[in-house]
Design brief:
The structure holds 2 protein chains of 2 kinds.
Chain A (H helix, E strand, L loop, with lengths): L2 E5 L3 E2 L5 E8 L8 E7 L6 E6 L5 E3 L7 E6 L4 E6 L8 E8 L9 E4 L3 E5 L2
Chain B lengths: L8 E4 L5 E6 L8 E6 L6 E4 L13 E6 L2 E6 L8 E9 L3 E4 L3 E5 L1
Parallel strand pairs in B: 1-9
Antiparallel strand pairs in B: 2-6, 3-4, 3-7, 5-6, 7-8, 7-9
The chains are: A mainly beta, B mainly beta.
């Protein structure tokens, strides 16, 4: 059974870089599928941030592309998110999820991690 | 950029059929999927590739997609189905796109 768990600081200062890690258990990220990050501001809808393939290819939401970096560590079966120059608008629950997509056609996210709230505040 | 539009809210009586729509330009030419999210929980995939149900999802959940509209249908809606529902699709220009979400109330 695949399980994902997000970890990282719950509070980040404005203008700094948000860093989160997703640890995957029950499945090797090197085996296939892509892996994604999605966020949800309090009381609002879902927003895709980006995804990474098992080969390390990445693709990002155009609206966040200049600030986002997603990387993978197959030795630890983890993948990570970095979001730079954060503002209060980046306050959200951040989820990691397995992405069924190939980066060029349809996709879906299943399963999802439990999510972690990151607040941007001084 | 590509956009998906959902009604903010839908209400249904227990035991009746609920239909939640998701509209986008030529959405029927793409695949749509649906997620259920209950308060304080992570989203759960309930429909993928328009009509397929993941293992463990009750048969009362079904999906369709044609023209500009994808529809999630819940037959014999139960109180436990009360949740927010999000559609999602892939677009070549925007990649992953989510709809704004629909709050389903069972009353």
């Amino acid at each position: 059974q695949v399980q994902l768990q997000e970890s990282g600081p719950g509070l980040v200062k404005p203008s700094e870089t948000l860093s989160l890690t997703c640890t995957v258990s029950g499945y090797s990220i090197n085996s296939g599928h892509h892996w994604g990050w999605i966020r949800q501001p309090p009381g609002k809808g879902l927003e895709w941030i980006g995804s990474i393939s098992r080969s390390g290819s990445t693709y990002y939401n155009p609206s966040l592309k200049t600030r986002v970096t997603i990387s993978g560590d197959t030795s630890k079966n983890q993948f990570s998110l970095k979001l730079s120059s954060v503002t209060a608008a980046d306050t959200a629950v951040y989820y990691c999820a397995r992405d069924s997509g190939s980066g060029s056609t349809d996709n879906w996210f299943d399963p999802w991690g439990q999510g972690t709230l990151v607040t941007v505040s001084s | 950029s590509y956009e998906l539009t959902q009604p903010p809210s839908v209400s249904v009586s227990p035991g009746q059929t609920a239909s939640i729509t998701c509209s986008g330009d030529k959405l029927g030419d793409k695949y749509a999927c649906w997620y259920q999210q209950k308060p304080g929980q992570s989203p759960v995939l309930v429909i993928y590739q328009d009509t397929k149900r993941p293992s463990g999802i009750p048969e009362r959940f079904s999906g369709s997609n044609s023209g500009n509209t994808a529809t999630l249908t819940i037959s014999g809606t139960q109180p436990m189905d009360e949740a927010d529902y999000y559609c999602q699709a892939w677009d070549t220009s925007t990649a992953v796109v989510f709809g704004g979400g629909t709050k389903l109330t069972v009353l």
